[in-house]
Amino acid sequence: MKNIAVIGTGYVGLVSGVCFSEAGNHVICCDIDQGKINDLKRGIIPIFEPGLNQLIDKNVARNRLCFTSDIPKAIQRAEVIIIAVGTPMSRTGEADLTHVKQVAKTIGKHLNGYKIIVNKSTVPVGTGKMVKNLISEISRDQYAFDVVSNPEFLREGVAVKDTMQMERAVIGATSAKAMEVMVQLHKPFTTKVVKTTIESAEMIKYAANAFLATKISFMNDIANICERAGADVTKVSEGIGLDSRIGQKFLQAGVGFGGSCFPKDTAALLHIAESFGYDFKLIKAVMETNIGQRVQIIKKVESILGSLEGKSISILGLAFKPNTNDMRYAPALDIIPQLNHLGANVKTFDPIAIPEAKKQLGYICSYSDDLYETIRGTDACVILTGWKEIKSLDLEKTKRLMNHPFVIDGRNLFDLTMMQNLGFTYVSVGRPVVHGETTFSNII
Ligand code: UDX
Predict the structure, then answer these.
(1) Atom 5 of ligand 1, nearest CA residue
(2) Which domain of life is it from (predicted)?
(3) Residue 329 near ligand 1, beta carbon < 6 Å
């Protein structure tokens, strides 16, 4: 059991801190955002994450978890300090390390004995060394300390499960003592541990995300060829995924990847490569294909409706993926302004992401958490998130409510034959177009 301070109560910090407390440690989660800390103290959780509330209540009640904005005190009490602050994408695409540097300086200022400083933020190769140098400089080497890289691989929506039952832990450390403490901390998660250097651990995080993003863009490129060739990308995914060397996961073609990691980390990796004088062409193509998938959706809507001026379009799903209210780099953020720009009236549905979406999109569209009210009276439905509510849509009712039975599906949620039998015109991704009983040209 260790005393742990987690600095940064974003997705990674909060979930990791809570799970380390569940594993039996004493954890203080800190943040400079007093409002966030006040909320957490009152049991208000800033993110939507299944299972997190219960774990917080349980461990706060056991006195194993608490929240504070007094970062110096948390640093002084801790044996292990986890840095989990954001490394957002800067305007040039690089990871912005402002917060990491700030935290390193604060740690250096308040160091009062040997501590292990763990970097969980996604940071470019070399950041661990930089953090070490900053702490040494500010603390004037009064106390010994170790810096460790321990990247996080949790997925939003299943973050608690991904942490409590993690597939692997990656630990990059230079000292045997720090490595041993980190290995012990991960024991309750019964996971495979990859022990390595700080630089390799930092690289593993980017390589993992970039590889997954590459799988998605690869399938999206294959989907675009399938559309031209009359093939079905879902069958292609099935057919190649059964080869264990390829694997069945992350082969779903669609509207492209979003979220807090893939867009940011692919751009950052490109910069890292450039900083070492390497032209990472493959990752450039991955990013380009991803943007292209969003454009494809607009083109598909136009292929059915012609001019979008004055047309009413419903967007089903705003969050970048189901089971989260996260709107970061969500496809909806590119697609809705574009539809709006082309003159369409856009109505949107999402079960939980509306408040977040409003912050980014404002009032260029209307919002509702009522699926059928959103669909009612629209000329086309565009599906952007695979929410279970949308997957289980009553399609006959949908058809009755719409002006025309036109569905553009960015997530391949429905069976082609079923849509054909119901009389929809249905355009999905990488699958043959279903031509329903109506086309826009024969109703105007
Ligand atoms: C991802 C990584 O999975 C996680 O390990 C890392 O720590 C953070 O980034 P997350 O962003 O929560 O997690 O979402 P994930 O479930 O991986 O999906 C990312 C994006 O890829 C979503 O926009 C999703 O819709 C898209 N995706 C995923 C596809 O388009 N096709 C797929 O087959 C899988």
Answers:
(1) 153
(2) Bacteria
(3) no
Q: What are 279's two structure tokens? A: 């032209």
Name the closest-CA residue to atom 8, ligand 1.
261
CA of 291 relative to ligand 1 center, distance in Å: 15
Three-state secondary structure string covering 327-396 = CCCCHHHHHHHHHHHCCCEEEEECCCCHHHHHHHHCCCCEEECCHHHHHCCCCEEEECCCCHHHHCCCHH
Atom of ligand 1 nearest to the CA of 331: 23
Measured over the CA atoms of residue 339, residue 340, residue 344 and residue 347, the dihedral's sign is positive
Catalytic entry in 29, 30, 66, 261:
261
- Taking the C-alpha atoms of residue 427 and residue 409, their distance in angstroms, rounded to an integer, is 6
> Does residue 406 have a known ligand-binding role?
no
pLDDT score at 436: 84
Nearest atom within ligand 1 for CA of residue 156: 12
Residue 218 CB less than 6 A away from ligand 1: no
pLDDT tens, position by position, 86-113? 998 888 888 899 999 999 999 999 999 9
Ligand 1 atom showing the smallest separation from residue 151 Cα = 7
Where along the chain do its domains lie? 3-196, 289-442
Name which of 33, 40, 44, 104 is nearest 75 in CA terms: 104
SS3 436: coil
Six-digit token string for 371: 């699926």
Give the per-residue pLDDT at 191: 83
Q: What are phi and psi of 91, to 5 degrees?
A: -60, -30
381 is catalytic: no
Neighbours of 177 (CB within 10 A): 12
The residue ranges of the chain whose pLDDT is under 50 are 442-444
Angle at 277 between CA 291 and CA 136, to 5 degrees: 100
* pLDDT confidence of residue 443: 44
Q: Are 194 and 270 in contact (CB under 8 A)?
A: no
Domain 3-196 has CATH 3.30.420.10: no
Put simply, whether the predicted model's pTM sits higher than 0.90 gets the answer yes
The CATH code belonging to domain 289-442 is 3.40.50.720
For ligand 1, atom 9, the nearest C-alpha belongs to 261
**Alpha carbon of 444 to ligand 1 centroid (Å):** 41
- pLDDT tens for each residue of 347-359: 999 999 999 999 9
Residue 67 among known ligand-binding residues: no
Q: Is 270 annotated as a binding residue?
A: no
Please check whether the two domains, 3-196 and 289-442, share a CATH topology: yes
Q: What is the pLDDT of residue 442?
A: 43
The amino acid at 3: N
